[in-house]
């Protein structure tokens, strides 16, 4: 008897749970339905997780609340970098010349050097950097989430990234463009020579769209062989399944280093790919600090100041150079004044950058000359290139 | 708001109906001592369980859909198919598809390429698989061991590895285009970019000739049926292959002469990287095809072997008693019975073959999955594209199994 009663109690409970389940189901769908109808209320509760993830100052979550307020009002990324005494950079770890990691875990490359430039400028020590390797799909999320202070990872400046991705692109450090790589003995020297060739390209990229658009406009027939991954594309190029490999010119130069065959890159560049440092939207002070630190390398090259000869400029009579290096200037009455530009950087930041990392030309030579990448548009404006920075005064 | 009230009303109505039914049955049970109480009455328990199951599935699906809608609205993704009319911007190797053509055309090209893999690959896999399955049962020690090693090798490695492996071997074993291998006096071209062979090219009366070919096929079929009936009626040798083929060749041959060379055989040629004449295929297609056939054949071989073993031993002994040769025994006694057993699992292999063809994009052959992966990268809406992809494979699979079931029905022994 007792057994039967307990069984019926179980069934009643089960029935109640089922009924609750049905009601819960109906209610949960009400939430979703509301999101559709009213736009605001119900929908928000579903996506609330993402709203917090989008907030630009999540790194400071461990700091007290009032610090967060400071971050929102007047920057504060600079202050948090200074107090942490390290610059967190998002970088690449697999692109020779730009950002690559060696067997000992040390990063090197063009983009990595610019991270060191920022550390030298802000903290006075180029080695106070912490590089986080990121894949392309993660990079903007890491920046928006505040895991990194600055993103320097061969990232192309585009309108949608500036807008929808809430990123703030600064001084372009490398003007890249889509290029074509062929075997040195292929006899292909111009775009027109590419008629009827097979072109290897990664699937689902803007590279493919540019290829179709430009060669299509010029009426050059070709076959596009689309690969999912460079792991298959590279052997296909080596075995001459395709005569041409198209990608960003700098990447092609980087890949060419790893090949056993002699290659050459065509002079034709069919797209604009400006690469440079990126910070998150909403912190102008930090953006300016990063921007002027990067631009200092270009200004130094324009002045002809290198890490080798910087000491010889201590007695320079050029007031522009003296101001740039943070050297005292005579005010005419015998008083020595050190110019302060009010960026929140030490007055000798440019000097630190040049001593510890070098000027733009040195950084370029060190990292990209081994890839036989010529300066091209990345030459100084005085040499007919695009590297032009505002005056340091 | 209206939707919310409706949902709540449905749930309340269902609960109310259950509640009333429960108490009425309980009352009936009390009045009638023989009737079980409602919580032990299978009639009501069955209904309650089904309502609960439907309710749970429905609410889970509804919850997921609501979440999905909230996300897509938050990022401003429109769930319509208008994008299908926009230019795709992509191109597909050896396809006349224009990059400015609409996305729907790119998708159709992808479907066509998937179809090209299936239609050629499945028959090849069946032939190779049957040969291997028979070889495994051969009394020839070497033959059966070779077949065993083959089957064990291919069915125990992932199909993606087989495809990429085949591709890599072809890539490196065949010469580059400028040093193409030209066997049979240049009738064929083999290099690691494309394979090409002779083909026919239509002349002036090609249209008329095609009509004649269709008529000739119908006549040959009629002759086949006629000879089979004679055999069934009288027992005279039917020779239906000979008769049917003969009538086909005679009709088309006369037509060829009357229509004054309606077609010509062309051999391929490469001039400045352009393939002129003949029939060509890009190497990734060949690699995917060979890889899938090699892999699927190993599975089919096991099905064939198992179904041959399922034929009662007495049948073979009866064949021997009639002094049938080994080939005759297989052709007329064992295989017809084995095939009946083998067919249902074979349909499964055909479906697997179809689905595995989606791995072709790994080696650069743009079938439907490859095309859709490409469109993902061009910021085209993923939910709709995934939906199209699922519908495509579903259609392929349903059509294949419908055909398979039709054949299967005809194969089954009637009566008994």
Tell me the greatest interface. A-B, 54 and 65 residues
Distance between the termini of chain B: 61 Å
Q: Which spans of chain B of ≥5 residues are poorly predicted at pLDDT below 50?
A: none
Assembly state: heterodimer
Mean pLDDT of chain A equals: 81
The CATH architecture of the largest domain in chain A would be 3-Layer(aba) Sandwich
**The number of domains of chain A:** 2
Can you describe this structure?
The complex is a heterodimer of chains A (393) and B (416). With 393 residues, chain A is of the alpha/beta class. Chain A folds into two domains: 54-177 and 273-393, 3-Layer(aba) Sandwich (D-Maltodextrin-Binding Protein, domain 2); 179-271, Periplasmic binding protein-like II (D-Maltodextrin-Binding Protein, domain 2, 3-Layer(aba) Sandwich), CATH 3.40.190.10. Helices cover 43% and strands 16% of the residues of chain A. Chain A has helices at residues 2-38, 41-54, 65-74, 77-84, 110-123, 139-144, 159-163, 206-217, 230-238, 249-257, 284-303, 319-325, 349-356, 360-368, and strands at 87-91, 94-95, 99-101, 107-108, 129-133, 150-151, 167-169, 174-176, 178-183, 197-202, 222-227, 244-248, 263-265, 273-275, 278-280, 329-330, 336-337. In chain A, the strands form six sheets. Chain A has a five-stranded mixed sheet. Chain A has a three-stranded parallel sheet with strand order 5-1-6. Chain A has a three-stranded antiparallel sheet with strand order 2-3-4. In chain A, helix 5 (110-123) packs antiparallel against helix 13 (349-356). Chain B is mainly α and 416 residues long. Among the domains of chain B are: 2-77, no CATH class; 103-152 and 283-411, MetI-like fold (Orthogonal Bundle). Chain B is 69% helix and 6% strand. Chain B has helices at residues 2-31, 42-74, 103-136, 141-155, 159-173, 183-186, 206-234, 240-258, 283-309, 313-321, 326-356, 368-377, 382-411; strands spanning 189-190, 194-197, 199-202, 263-266, 269-271, 274-276, 279-282. In chain B, strands 1-2-7 form a three-stranded antiparallel sheet. In chain B, strands 3-4 form a two-stranded antiparallel ribbon. Chain B is extended and about 90 Å long. Chains A and B meet through helix 1, helix 2, helix 8, strand 11 and helix 9 of A and helix 1, helix 2, helix 5 and helix 12 of B.
């Amino acid at each position: 008897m007792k057994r039967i009663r307990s069984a019926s109690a179980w069934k009643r409970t089960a029935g109640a749970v089922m009924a609750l389940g049905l009601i819960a189901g109906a209610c949960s769908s009400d939430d979703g339905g509301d999101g559709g109808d009213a736009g605001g209320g119900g929908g928000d509760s579903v996506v609330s997780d993402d709203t917090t993830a989008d907030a630009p100052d999540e790194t400071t979550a461990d700091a007290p609340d009032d610090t967060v307020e400071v971050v929102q009002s007047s920057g504060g990324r600079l202050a948090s970098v200074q107090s942490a005494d390290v610059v967190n950079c998002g970088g690449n770890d697999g692109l020779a010349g730009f950002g690559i990691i060696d067997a000992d875990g040390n990063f090197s490359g063009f983009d990595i050097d610019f991270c060191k430039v920022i550390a030298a400028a802000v903290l006075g020590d180029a080695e106070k950097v912490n590089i986080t390797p990121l894949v392309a799909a993660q990079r903007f999320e890491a920046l928006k989430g505040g895991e990194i202070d600055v993103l320097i990872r061969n990232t192309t400046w585009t309108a949608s990234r500036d807008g929808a991705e809430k990123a703030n692109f600064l001084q372009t450090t490398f003007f890249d463009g889509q290029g074509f790589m062929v075997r040195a003995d292929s006899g292909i020297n111009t775009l027109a020579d590419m008629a009827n060739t097979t072109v290897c390209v990664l699937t689902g990229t803007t590279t493919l769209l540019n290829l179709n658009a430009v060669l299509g406009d010029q009426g050059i027939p070709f076959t596009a062989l689309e690969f999912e991954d460079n792991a298959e594309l590279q052997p296909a190029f080596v075995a001459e399944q395709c005569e041409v490999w198209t990608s960003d010119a700098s990447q092609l130069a980087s890949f060419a280093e790893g090949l056993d065959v002699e290659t050459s890159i065509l002079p034709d560049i069919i797209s604009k790919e400006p690469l440079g440092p990126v910070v998150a939207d909403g912190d102008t002070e930090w953006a300016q600090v990063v921007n002027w630190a990067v631009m200092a390398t270009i200004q130094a090259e324009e002045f002809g100041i290198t890490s080798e000869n910087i000491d010889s400029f201590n007695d320079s009579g050029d007031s522009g150079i003296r101001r740039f290096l943070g050297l005292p200037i005579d005010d005419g009455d015998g008083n020595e004044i050190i110019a302060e530009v009010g960026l929140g950087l030490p007055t000798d930041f440019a000097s630190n950058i040049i001593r510890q990392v070098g000027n733009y030309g040195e950084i370029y030579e060190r990292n990209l000359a081994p890839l036989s990448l010529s300066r091209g548009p990345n030459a100084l404006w005085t040499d007919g290139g695009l590297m032009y920075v505002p005056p340091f005064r | 708001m209206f939707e919310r009230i409706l949902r709540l009303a449905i749930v309340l109505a269902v609960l109310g109906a259950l509640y009333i039914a429960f108490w009425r049955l309980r009352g009936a049970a009390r009045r009638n001592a023989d009737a079980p109480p409602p919580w032990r009455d299978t009639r009501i328990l069955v209904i309650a369980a089904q309502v609960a199951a439907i309710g749970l599935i429905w609410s889970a699906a509804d919850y997921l859909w609501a979440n999905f809608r909230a996300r897509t609205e938050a990022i401003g993704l429109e769930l319509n198919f208008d994008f299908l009319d926009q230019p795709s911007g992509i191109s597909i190797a050896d396809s006349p598809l224009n990059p400015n053509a609409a996305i729907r055309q790119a998708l159709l090209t992808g479907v066509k390429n998937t179809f090209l893999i299936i239609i050629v690959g499945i028959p090849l896999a069946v032939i190779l698989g049957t040969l291997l399955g028979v070889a495994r049962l051969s009394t020839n020690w070497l033959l059966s061991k070779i077949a065993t090693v083959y089957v064990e090798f291919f069915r125990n490695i992932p199909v993606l590895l087989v495809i990429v492996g085949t591709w890599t071997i072809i890539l490196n074993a065949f010469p580059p285009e400028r040093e193409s291998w030209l066997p049979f006096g240049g009738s064929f071209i083999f290099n690691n970019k494309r394979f090409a062979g002779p083909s026919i090219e239509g002349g002036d009366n090609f249209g008329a000739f095609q009509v004649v070919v269709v008529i000739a096929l119908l006549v040959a079929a009629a002759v086949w049926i006629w000879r089979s009936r004679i055999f069934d009626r009288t027992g005279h040798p039917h020779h239906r292959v000979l008769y049917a083929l003969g009538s086909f060749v005679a009709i088309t041959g006369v037509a060829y002469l009357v229509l004054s060379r309606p077609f010509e055989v062309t051999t391929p040629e490469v001039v400045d990287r352009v393939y002129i004449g003949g029939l060509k295929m890009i190497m990734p297609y060949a690699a995917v095809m060979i890889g899938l056939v090699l892999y699927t054949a190993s599975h089919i071989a096991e099905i064939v072997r198992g179904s041959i073993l399922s034929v009662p031993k007495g049948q073979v002994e009866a064949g021997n008693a009639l002094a049938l040769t080994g080939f005759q025994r297989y052709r007329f006694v064992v295989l017809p019975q084995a095939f009946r057993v083998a067919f249902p699992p074979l349909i499964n292999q055909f479906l697997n073959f179809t689905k595995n063809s989606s791995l072709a994009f790994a080696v650069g052959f743009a079938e439907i999955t490859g095309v859709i992966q490409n469109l993902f990268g061009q910021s085209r809406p993923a939910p709709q594209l995934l939906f199209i992809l699922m519908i495509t494979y579903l259609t392929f699979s349903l059509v294949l199994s419908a055909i398979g079931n039709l054949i299967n029905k005809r194969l089954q022994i009637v009566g008994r």
